[in-house]
Amino acid sequence: MQSSETSTGAPSRPVAVPTSLKIPDVIKITDSDAADDFVLPVATIRPETSTERLIPDAGAAVPLQFTAEKLSGWLTRHKKTLGMKTSDRKWYEFVDDRCKLFVFQGPDEPVPQESIDIGRAAIVVDPEFSEKPGVFALSIDNQTIVLEAFSSDEMRRWIQELQKRRELFLKIRSVDTLTRGHTYSRVNSSNASSSPAAVEENRSTSAEYDFCAQPDEPTGLGSGDTSASGVLVSFDDILYRTTKAPLYRPDQDGENSAGLDIPSQHHGRNQPSPTAKRSENKPMQAFRQMFGPNKVEKVDVKHEKALEDRLIVLQDELLLARDELTAQKEIVTVLRRQLDFTTKEKEALRTLVGSTDKEAAQMQILRDRCRLILELEEALQNSRSEKDTLVQRSEILKNELLEMARQSAKLRENLRNKENAIVLLTEQVTKQELSGPRPVRNGSQRSLPDTEDQVQKMRDILEAYKEKLAFLNEEIVSQNNLRTEMAGREEVLLGMITDWEAKHARLESRLLYSLKDMASGKVKSILGSPEDEVSRIRQRILDEALGGSEADAHVKAVTECDRYGFFVSRLHYTNEEYLERKALEAERRQRLVNLRKDPSSADLSAKWDSFLTKQTRLLQKSEELKNLMRIGCPDGHRGRVWKSCVEWRVSAIKTVKGVGYYQSLVKDTAKPLASSAAKQIKIDLCRTLPNNVHFMNMESDMIPRLEEVLLAFSRHNPAVAYCQGMNRLVAVALLFLNEEDAFWCLVAIVEYLLPGYFTINMIEAQTDQRIFRDLFATKLPELFSHLSQQLDPTLYSFNWFLTVFVDNMHPDIFLPIWDAFLVEGKKVLFRFSLAMFKYFEDVLMEITDQNLANKLLRNLGDRVTDLRKLQAIAFETLNPFPMKLVKARRAVHLPEIMAEMQQLEKLRASVSQSHSNSNNQEEDDL
Amino acid sequence: MAAVARNTAGGPPSAGKIFQFKLVLLGEAAVGKSSLVLRFVKGHFHEYQESTIGAAFLTQTVCLDETTVKFEIWDTAGQERYHSLAPMYYRGAQAAIIVYDITNQESFNKAKAWVRELQRQANPNIVIALTGNKADLVNKRTVEYEEAQAYADEQGLLFLETSAKSGVNVNELFLAIAKKLPKTEPAGTRGQGQTVNVNAAAEESKGGCCGGGGGSASAAPGGAARN
């Protein structure tokens, strides 16, 4: 009855899939390997008709026909009917597509006697059946079918196979119902037992099925067991949750994140680290871009990156493993509770079995539970071992992590060092760029080593140059010493040369004097040699001494002029005089050289320099300048100093006349001019300084300027107009000043320094000559008395006063006199005129012949060779110079002369009157 | 050629007495006073002779027959304002040469003025010679020879036309003066109006003839004077 019930109910009754059984999930949550194994049989399912009859071998020794296609075999069924135990042996065959166990009389029997719906059955191995090792039970709807296999092994195989096939059936049916309803296919599970994973899976699925099926049992654990089912449900949930976790792997992140409920904390933990890593990489990349691919560093960085990535993975794995471990622990806890629960249930069932009729069934259930417990314990064991491995793995990962951290720290240290180095190098580069004009270009990869090389090279070159410089400095010093030595020697030699020249010239002049004497017949022929021969020899010597004919003398003179343009023209002198002049010239030159050698001259030029640097362009009158000018002004400064001296005198009149006065005088040709003055000026132009190249003829450069200045002055001062002598003053001024300054210089001399000298009767000039004569008599009484027996000294001094010594005097002598004169005025003329006589006092005292004295005095200026001696006489020997006397004498002489002049004028007037009268008389007579 | 006077010192031995005379040159500026003296004393001539300031003093000796005449020559400045100095030089002079420029009429007029002044003011016995210089510039002549000759005759002056440039009649001029000067007192005594009789014109042979320089004022023109 039971069987019919089951058989009838089996086809019609739809298989209820427990809602808690989420098979696809279960499939999914298994290991990927297990899933693959599972999928494979699905692919190899062979469709079989339900009507196909699979007949096992009847006389087979093997009680269980256990093939890939079919589960069938002999089993003995034990029944307890009315307290009586019966057992009959039948052929049991499992039909996969129905999930039913059909009972046949024998393997060849076509019609089954009975069918057992395995899909709804719970397979129980009751420990109570332990005396019979091959016994197991199938309980369906409070009905228990006890079956016995030949051995416990065979029983286990039966149970396993049944479980497996039932599971397969249920799964396929659920898929089919989901897709196309009732299409059944036979599932091939040929290698179900071949892999341990499959076994394990089977066990777990069966266990699950059992757990899940449990609440469906109407007569399950009674009404009081809600807590147990609650536990089961919660267990299920936990299972679901924990098994889901291992799927969540970083490498599957992208694929699974969409379809799976990813816990946010995983993201939170995982996501930031790569980005952080990336942000950490940024400076590195920047440096790499800056300094190019530093290979070693790149490798390091790459390596480090890989390590870091791996570290992250490992950290994630570690976390996952920890989670897994936690889940497993939970499972274990749950399982323990389950175990406790089942133990309790077992106890309850045992009591139930003991008290109720359904004791056996309950026992069966208990046995099932026991088996389940065993299985769970096994699972627990597995989990524990898994947990251990996970712990171990976590330990390993921890170690790895530590290692990684250490490496990372090391690399970081490395990186920091490198960064520092880079910063240092960057600073150096910047410095070099700033300091040196050599910008590092063409990419930084070459610049660093190149720059270092260059720096080294430059240093070497610098060293070389330093050495060279030191050597050259030494060379310069030594060369300078040599040069100084040579200069000193040259100076000495020049002095010697000049000495010799002077000596030579002196000898020459003496020779020529002798020759002159011979020529004049003073020396008669000596040794009785024929006179014509003597004269011939004499002539030859003379010609040699004169150096050429008179014809080219003029040309020669021009080329031999001094620095002021003066020359000695042979045409102006007799041969003897000419030679004498040459001798004097040489002597003067010698003295000049000696002066130059004298240290006092160096002092003098230093004094001048220091004085002039203190002054403004226009010098002020001072005692210092006066003293300096008494010695004489250097040629280079003469123009400036003279201009200043002139300025002191004429600044007032210049201010009155205004700027451009001189120019207006030059241009104002319409202004009436004394014709005699202009005429005289014209005549005198070339008679001014004919022994100077600038004035020697009408074509000479300064002749027009001379005329311009003289004409301007004649317009400026018609009363004076032009007086002979002024032309020489202007000519000398023009040697150092321009036309305008020369004009003002003439104004200064004519109107301020020597007033009344150049006026109509030259009264002042005449007066001063008489004063001079008195002065001479006072200061040099012996010489005066000696000379005045023969001639009047004013015959010569008048010239000196009027031309300021220009007439018949060498420029080396008269220019220093001019210097002093421009500062101090007329008294300088008295001093130097007296000094001239004093200079030659000894010579003059010896001369008694008037002619000789005259000759000497006429050329007195030319004969002065020692300027310093002359200056010393003028400013020292003649001191005290009594200007009081000068004034006193002037008071006497001036009225005298004025009276004389009046008388003369009267006379001339009367002469001209008488002349015209007589003329008239004559005319009358006629 | 012009060494006549200069070399007289070496002339005839014991030429008798030496007479010394003071001679002054007067005349307008730039007529050639200095050039005449230079020609006479040194035998030189310069195109551009420096203008004389005040006066220049030179000496020269002329040898006549048996006598030697030494001239103290005072060459004065020609510009008018120096004329105030002139009395200083012509005072005590026994001889005077008044020079004019034959190309310059004004200078001839000025010469006349000098003649009058000397006649009034100077030594009464002064020997005055009128000289027309720059005779080489005949083309530019403005003062006729006859006019000057007539004037000289009238005033009792020696007259010669000379050329300092060419040297014509320069020595003759001085010789004529030397001859005309009264030789009354022996030389060596300096003083005014000293004159020594010149007995013979002891002319040096190579100096050329100066016979044309007689006391007569009717000397031949420069060119004719030379023998």
UniProtKB/TrEMBL annotation, chain A:
<dbReference type="GO" id="GO:0005096">
    <property type="term" value="F:GTPase activator activity"/>
</dbReference>
<dbReference type="Pfam" id="PF00566">
    <property type="entry name" value="RabGAP-TBC"/>
</dbReference>
<dbReference type="Pfam" id="PF00169">
    <property type="entry name" value="PH"/>
</dbReference>
<dbReference type="InterPro" id="IPR001849">
    <property type="entry name" value="PH_domain"/>
</dbReference>
<dbReference type="InterPro" id="IPR050302">
    <property type="entry name" value="Rab_GAP_TBC_domain"/>
</dbReference>
<feature type="region of interest" description="Disordered">
    <location>
        <begin position="433"/>
        <end position="452"/>
    </location>
</feature>
<protein>
    <submittedName>
        <fullName>TBC1 domain family member 2A</fullName>
    </submittedName>
</protein>
<dbReference type="InterPro" id="IPR011993">
    <property type="entry name" value="PH-like_dom_sf"/>
</dbReference>
<feature type="domain" description="Rab-GAP TBC">
    <location>
        <begin position="632"/>
        <end position="825"/>
    </location>
</feature>
<feature type="region of interest" description="Disordered">
    <location>
        <begin position="185"/>
        <end position="206"/>
    </location>
</feature>
<dbReference type="InterPro" id="IPR035969">
    <property type="entry name" value="Rab-GAP_TBC_sf"/>
</dbReference>
<feature type="compositionally biased region" description="Low complexity">
    <location>
        <begin position="185"/>
        <end position="199"/>
    </location>
</feature>
<dbReference type="InterPro" id="IPR000195">
    <property type="entry name" value="Rab-GAP-TBC_dom"/>
</dbReference>
<feature type="region of interest" description="Disordered">
    <location>
        <begin position="247"/>
        <end position="282"/>
    </location>
</feature>
<feature type="domain" description="PH">
    <location>
        <begin position="68"/>
        <end position="167"/>
    </location>
</feature>
<dbReference type="GO" id="GO:0031267">
    <property type="term" value="F:small GTPase binding"/>
</dbReference>
Automatic annotation (TrEMBL), chain B:
<feature type="region of interest" description="Disordered">
    <location>
        <begin position="204"/>
        <end position="227"/>
    </location>
</feature>
<dbReference type="InterPro" id="IPR027417">
    <property type="entry name" value="P-loop_NTPase"/>
</dbReference>
<keyword id="KW-0813">Transport</keyword>
<comment type="similarity">
    <text>Belongs to the small GTPase superfamily. Rab family.</text>
</comment>
<keyword id="KW-0653">Protein transport</keyword>
<protein>
    <recommendedName>
        <fullName>small monomeric GTPase</fullName>
        <ecNumber>3.6.5.2</ecNumber>
    </recommendedName>
</protein>
<keyword id="KW-0378">Hydrolase</keyword>
<keyword id="KW-0636">Prenylation</keyword>
<keyword id="KW-0449">Lipoprotein</keyword>
<keyword id="KW-0547">Nucleotide-binding</keyword>
<dbReference type="GO" id="GO:0003925">
    <property type="term" value="F:G protein activity"/>
</dbReference>
<dbReference type="InterPro" id="IPR001806">
    <property type="entry name" value="Small_GTPase"/>
</dbReference>
<dbReference type="GO" id="GO:0015031">
    <property type="term" value="P:protein transport"/>
</dbReference>
<keyword id="KW-0967">Endosome</keyword>
<dbReference type="Pfam" id="PF00071">
    <property type="entry name" value="Ras"/>
</dbReference>
<dbReference type="InterPro" id="IPR005225">
    <property type="entry name" value="Small_GTP-bd"/>
</dbReference>
<feature type="compositionally biased region" description="Low complexity">
    <location>
        <begin position="217"/>
        <end position="227"/>
    </location>
</feature>
<dbReference type="GO" id="GO:0005525">
    <property type="term" value="F:GTP binding"/>
</dbReference>
<keyword id="KW-0342">GTP-binding</keyword>
<dbReference type="GO" id="GO:0005769">
    <property type="term" value="C:early endosome"/>
</dbReference>
